[in-house]
């Protein structure tokens, strides 16, 4: 048996009837950009997250860029974020000409260390951009307190955490703006590129809407130099269909994670933290730390279990960012050599889950 680390074909198969109906509806409508499908999805996702507004955009990176533009953040401004993330987080910041200032993470949760944030705030700092990595909510109470104290805006990168809660509130509804990606492998994934911005702020929502559509207030009236980044009708229709399955998909991910946690509790793997109030995570990825990581991966692969590393090179050590002076980030730099992502997706069957467990236990 081969167990892939993720399997996008099986997602389509698991909700084929709903997706096919949605796609046919769009094809027959003859309307493909900024229409009823997107409006419907935006309403449904805003309601799900618990905010007044959701604005669909082209992808998660654009969501970050547009959120910053809407806030007027740009050249000369600093945005504090983590280096241990998809480097696309940082690219959303550089896209507006602002400087990402990278901070270290908590060694157990892999999310932003608020103490390190406090140490890098300068008069140029405009925003804090935590990432709810692997589906685990960042320490939002401390981050929001710091932001209030220093008059900073908080923008959440919720690209990996659709449905996760912190203090009972869904992530994406806690900061001023939330940024989502619907890249195909995310907990809520389109069949192509898509993203969204969530907010309770009416004026910001209007600006975001204008910016994503070329900066137009009305057709052919460009008030600002916006971008072209719209979630198309096909992806919106697919996402609306899939959103109805999100809670059950997240529940299945949780059940698999709990099975792994129990099976590996006596092993010397460093396991992810789980169910620590006020965090209520959604298990985008199941990431463990292994001492001889590369050997561990090789031996899993030999048993048909595919793994990944999320992410092998932190943003501050990427060639694209080496021109920028940076501090060393000891925890980030250490754990990237130990982390490994085990297979976890909603469509995994019990036999596959057991195969992963047996393969891991055999090595350990
Ligand atoms: C996927 C992802 C992004 C980028 O989203 P795209 O839709 O691929 O542009 C940004 N941040 C994080 C944490 C992500 O996982």
List the helices and strands and how they pair.
Elements: H1 8-14, H2 16-29, H3 36-49, E1 53-57, H4 60-70, E2 78-82, H5 88-94, E3 99-103, H6 114-120, E4 125-129, H7 140-150, E5 153-157, E6 165-166, E7 169-170, E8 177-181, E9 195-199, H8 202-212, E10 216-218, E11 221-222, H9 233-263, E12 279-280, E13 286-289, H10 293-302, H11 330-335, E14 339-342, H12 350-363
Parallel strand pairs: 2-3, 2-4, 4-5, 5-8
Antiparallel strand pairs: 1-9, 6-7, 6-12, 8-9, 10-11, 13-14
Helix pairs in contact: 2-9, 3-9, 4-5, 4-8, 9-12
Q: What do these coordinates show?
A:
With 364 residues, the chain is α/β, with parallel strands linked by helices. Helices cover 39% and strands 15% of the residues. The protein has twelve helices and 14 strands. It has helices spanning 8-14, 16-29, 36-49, 60-70, 88-94, 114-120, 140-150, 202-212, 233-263, 293-302, 330-335, 350-363; strands at residues 53-57, 78-82, 99-103, 125-129, 153-157, 165-166, 169-170, 177-181, 195-199, 216-218, 221-222, 279-280, 286-289, 339-342. It has a seven-stranded mixed sheet with strand order 1-9-8-5-4-2-3, with helices on both faces. It has a three-stranded antiparallel sheet with strand order 7-6-12, with no helix packed on it. A two-stranded antiparallel ribbon has the order 10-11. Helix 7 (140-150) links the parallel strand 4 and strand 5 (153-157). Helix 4 packs parallel to helix 5. The longest helix has 31 residues, at 233-263. The radius of gyration is 20 Å and the shape is globular. The two termini are 20 Å apart. The structure holds pyridoxal-5'-phosphate. Pyridoxal-5'-phosphate is lined by residues 59-61, 85-86, 88-89, 131, 157, 159-160, 181, 183, 193, 195.
């Amino acid at each position: 048996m081969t167990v892939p680390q993720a399997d996008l074909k099986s997602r389509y198969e698991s909700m084929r009837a709903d997706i096919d109906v949605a796609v046919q509806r769009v094809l027959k409508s003859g309307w493909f950009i900024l229409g009823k499908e997107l409006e419907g999805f935006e309403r449904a996702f805003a309601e799900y997250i618990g905010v007044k507004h959701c604005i669909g955009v082209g992808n998660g990176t654009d969501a970050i860029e547009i959120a910053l533009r809407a806030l007027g953040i740009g050249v000369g401004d600093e945005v504090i974020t983590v280096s241990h993330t998809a480097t696309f987080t940082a690219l959303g910041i550089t896209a507006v000409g602002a400087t990402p200032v990278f901070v270290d993470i908590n060694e157990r949760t892999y999310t932003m260390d608020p103490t390190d944030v406090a140490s890098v705030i300068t008069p140029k700092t405009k925003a804090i951009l935590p990432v709810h990595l692997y589906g685990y909510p960042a320490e939002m109470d401390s981050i929001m307190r710091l932001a209030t104290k220093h008059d900073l805006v908080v923008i959440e990168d919720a690209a990996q955490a659709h449905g996760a809660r912190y203090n009972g509130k869904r992530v994406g509804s806690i900061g001023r703006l939330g940024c989502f990606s619907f890249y195909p492998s995310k907990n809520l994934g389109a069949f192509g590129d898509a993203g969204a911005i969530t907010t309770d702020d009416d004026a910001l929502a209007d600006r975001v809407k204008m910016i994503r559509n070329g900066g137009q207030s009305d057709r052919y009236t460009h008030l600002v130099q916006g971008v072209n980044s719209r979630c198309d009708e096909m992806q919106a229709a697919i996402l609306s269909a899939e959103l109805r399955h999100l809670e059950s998909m997240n529940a299945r991910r949780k059940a698999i994670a709990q099975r792994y946690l129990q099976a590996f509790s006596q092993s010397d793997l460093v396991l992810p933290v789980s169910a620590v109030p006020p965090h209520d995570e959604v298990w985008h990825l199941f990431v463990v730390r292994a001492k001889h990581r590369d050997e561990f991966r090789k031996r899993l692969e030999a048993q048909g279990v595919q793994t990944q590393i999320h992410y092998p090179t932190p943003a501050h050590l990427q060639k694209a960012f080496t021109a920028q002076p940076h501090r060393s980030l000891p925890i980030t730099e250490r754990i990237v050599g130990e982390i490994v992502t085990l297979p976890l997706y909603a469509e995994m069957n019990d036999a596959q889950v057991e195969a992963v467990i047996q393969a891991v236990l055999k090595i350990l």
